[in-house]
Amino acid sequence: MHNSNTDSKVVLITGAGKRVGATIARHCHRQGMRVAIHYRRSATEAEALAQELNQQQHDTAITLQAELQNTAAYPDLVKKVIEQWGKLDVLINNASSFYPTLFGEITEKSWDDLLGSNLKAPLFLSQAALPHLKKQKGCIINLVDIQAQRPLRKYPVYCVAKAGLVMLTKCLAKELGPSVRVNGVAPGIALWPDDETEFNPTLREKIVGRTALKRAGTPDDIADAVTFLIQHANYITGQIIAIDGGLSLDY
Q1: Which InterPro entries match (predicted)?
Q2: Which of 150, 165, 228, 249 is spaced 20 to 30 A from 56 at the CA atom?
Q3: Does the predicted TM-score (pTM) go above 0.90?
């Protein structure tokens, strides 16, 4: 059962129209939180998700469109959440670009895009949300990647961006304590990219075979860790939790 409006947490999730972000939104909602679903291009999916959640409980979901490459849009993004519900308890930096960048052919455009979505946006959005998070003694959760610590062939720029996000998570935890907790979750395989060319079935099977639990993770596995960090981790900050079925043990 949802809590009354005054004590249910308000969560802003970037890139929450589909895939892992949408699953995180559903899990948070199921635990009585109100969710602001940010999207860039997935308007149809985001609207459908908000409608689904609002049908379960009135006024518990909104959608917000913003281009995260444009940092000037951040204050407005936060303001809309505050206008709707009067507070912000949790920021989940989930939006992310992911694609190969072959060394020797890396363009400044792909550098700006990958560093922008995976590192710059979490920093500046956290900064925009900070006064409200402080007021609530809230928390920030960054979606990292186990490849932040271990290079993935053909993805140097993405790995560098996620490695930066790991350090940003730790820096912010130090800067923002005691009022705001900051943690990261690092998925291994939670959802394969839509593009099958890089991760073909044979390669997928091989990667799954290297996990200790012998299965791919699911978006639910990630979302469970996120809601744990929000609800049950009052003394945890500055940590990166690997949700990888033990894949990183094999490196």
Answers
A1: NAD(P)-bd_dom_sf, Sc_DH/Rdtase_CS, SDR_fam
A2: 228
A3: yes
- Say which of 74, 99, 158, 251 is annotated catalytic: 158
Structural tokens at position 181: 């907790």
Instruction: Count the residues in the chain.
Output: 251
Residue with tokens 């020797």: 104
Contact call for residues 41 and 66 (beta carbons, < 8 A): no
Question: 25 is written with which tokens?
Answer: 């939104």
Tens of pLDDT, residues 180-219: 999 999 999 776 766 666 678 888 888 899 999 999 999 9
Nearest to 217 by CA among 180, 186, 195: 186
Could you tell me which of 242, 173, 168, 217 has the C-alpha nearest to residue 23? 217
Is 39 noted as a catalytic residue in this protein?
no
3-state helix, strand, coil split of the chain in percent (to 5) is: 50, 15, 40
Given the candidates 3.40.50.720, 3.40.50.2000, 3.30.70.20, 3.30.70.890, the CATH classification of the domain at 10-243 is 3.40.50.720
d(CA 58, CA 60): 6
Which of 215, 221, 218 lies closest to 190 in space, CA to CA?
218
